[in-house]
Amino acid sequence: MGYTVTQESFASLTSYWTDLRYNLRWDSIFVLPSWLEVWWQEFGTGAELYLRAVRQEEKIIGGGLPVGAYGGRREIMQMVAPLGPVYQAGTLSGNPLAMTAGMETLKILQQPGIYNQLETKSANLEEGIARATSKAGIEFYIARIASLLTVFFSNTATTDYESANQADTAFFGRFFQRLLSGGIYWPPSQFEAAFVSLAHSNEDIQLTIKAADKALGSP
């Protein structure tokens, strides 16, 4: 049976949803009502959401640390040690630091207003870089969704690989080097995204904007 979700009905289900998720056998940020609400506001009615949960002893993994997981059909996974004969191991396998970081990340993300804070910081960074670029008289396009953004020095909208290839990558390289000289470690490739995090303070955002303004105004 199909159903339709609207902003109003979504909000009315939030408290029930929050209680229900504690009965899940796995945990993930992608089942948090706050995350789903931000997603819905970003992509709007008509978009579809596919949920995937990666768990380690029923807890989310990673929390920003270098850890990974893989999965497959039951008959394949049962071939992997210790259930089967295929040996698998690694330096970070079941790393207690990464597992703890993942659990603590979940606790932080459940705090009210966290995603709104992240959106505000990301929007401020986007707007600040846009002002600096416009002031310098440079053609640009900033692609941003939530806390991910990329600056393209181009006179057209960048929406796919072909249009991204039209951007001035040589200028981007100089932009990166000037930011680096100013103490800002921006992603070095034109085809990477910058990630704004909750660890970035408002002062960090303003410092980045000032460095971008100086970098774009340099001869």
Helix content: 40-55%
CATH architecture of the largest domain: Alpha-Beta Complex
Terminal Cα span: 62 Å
Rg is 21 Å
- In CATH terms, what is the fold-level topology of the largest domain? Aspartate Aminotransferase, domain 1
Low-confidence stretches: 1-8, 49-61
What can you tell me about this protein's structure?
By secondary structure, the protein is mainly alpha-helical. Helix content is 45%, strand content 7%. The strands form two sheets. Strands 3-4-5 form a three-stranded antiparallel beta sheet, with helices on one face. A two-stranded antiparallel ribbon has the order 1-2. A hairpin with a 2-residue loop joins β3 and β4. α5 runs parallel beside α8 and α7 crosses α8. The longest helix is centred in the middle third of the chain and has 22 residues. 15% of the residues are buried.
